[in-house]
Description:
By secondary structure, this protein is of the alpha/beta class. It has a single domain (4-214), classed as Aldolase class I (TIM Barrel, Alpha-Beta Barrel), CATH 3.20.20. Helices cover 36% and strands 19% of the residues. Helix 1 (13-22) links the parallel strand 1 and strand 2. The longest helix has 11 residues, at 67-77. 45% of the residues are buried.
Amino acid sequence: MPPKIKICCISSIEEAHLAISCGASALGLVSAMPSGPGVVDEDLIAQIIRTVPPPIATFLLTAQQSADAIIEQQHRCRPNTVQLVDAVAASELMRLRRALPGIALVQVIHVTGMEAIDEACAIAPHVDAILLDSGNQKLDIKQLGGTGRVHDWSISCAISERCGKPVFLAGGLNPDNVRAAIADVSPFGLDLCSGARTAGKLDEFKLRAFFAAARQ
Length: 216
């Protein structure tokens, strides 16, 4: 079965429905971040989510690390999935589980080295899925996604094999490298942002090329 495909950095109702029409299984909506593209106001995120049909997963990307702040965001925006782009303590994840029944939790692991394997395996029991990206939490201004960089897929493969949860692969994916990404990592899902955009706007030609390549 081909991987599920999530289109991230959705910035309008029109982009959301273009992505869905091309076959997206999930949409990513980016709330306030320390850096990176695609940030939109929470009111707009909520508006977009209200137009998305139920079979499609709506991922709210949040840089918050406390359960209380994340719960408040989920209540304002009403996504069915929360994507945690920064490290969140296991104790906070357990609080989220209790407060948000039925809401999927996806933890981002930024693959900067082999330590990402232990990090992913340690947090996996507390979340529904892991998303592997190419940010860097150690910089003065954190990079928490949208870098357009490819990371070391051999590390991602090891995480996919060991963590025991579905794995989404992000970071520099495009129509030219998606087949290699699938072959090397065997991810449950793919997460696409800059590889389907031209001048920051979702590009239907690139989007359809990506879906075609991923499904070959």
